[in-house]
Structures are given as structure tokens and as C-alpha cells.
Design a protein that fits this description.
Number of strands: 0
Oligomer: single chain
Helix content: 25-40%
Structural class: mainly alpha
Distance between the termini: 34 Å
């Protein structure tokens, strides 16, 4: 349980590449088993052997062409984002998340 408690700090300090694994291990913190212990040791081994891995965030706009609309648009063409009426005014530009994955 102590090792699982240490892992969120690694994710918060910049190791975003292990966020999913840390979240998964944290869900077993109430009742860990031996298999979870081995998975945590494996995760620490990964962090030790890959000390400089990182996910790069770039604030530059990337114009992508030929990207189809979301598949959900067919089912919900009338849907739009509902914002709270007492939401504070934005101080900067809007955030658009684009994820490119190389299989």
C-alpha cells in the first residue's frame, strides 16, 4: 500500500506516461494482493529504466485536414455543449486537444 501511495507523486511531477497505470493500481489500494505488488514493482522498474520519458505538450496550433466528424455526430446532431451561467470569463484562448498515435 505504501508503494501504491508513492506512485501518484510520480504522475503529478510530470510522468504522464504512467497516469493510467497509477490510477489502476490506486484503485486496488484498499485491498491489494500479491499480483498487485508485482505490478507495482514492474511499474517502478519501468520508471527506473526509462528515467527521461515524457509526453510533449505543444501550444502551437496544428491544422489537420481530412478528419471526419465524430461518429457520435450522426446520432446526436442537435447536441451542443452546455456551459454554466455563472462561469467566469476566459482569460486565454480555447484549448483544443489533438492526439496523434503511431501504431
Amino acid at each position: 500500500m505504501q508503494l501504491i501511495g508513492i506512485l501518484p507523486w510520480s504522475a503529478e511531477l510530470g510522468r504522464l506516461d504512467v497516469c493510467a497505470e497509477v490510477s489502476m493500481m490506486s484503485s486496488y489500494n484498499a485491498m491489494p494482493h500479491v499480483g498487485h505488488f508485482h505490478a507495482v514493482l514492474h511499474l517502478f522498474g519501468y520508471l527506473e529504466t526509462h528515467p527521461s520519458r515524457k509526453i510533449v505538450m505543444d501550444s502551437a496550433y496544428m491544422a489537420l485536414t481530412n478528419i471526419p466528424k465524430s461518429e457520435w455526430y450522426e446520432f446526436y446532431p442537435w447536441a451542443k455543449e452546455v456551459l454554466p451561467p455563472d462561469m467566469p470569463e476566459a482569460l486565454g484562448g480555447a484549448v483544443k486537444i489533438v492526439m496523434l498515435v503511431d501504431a
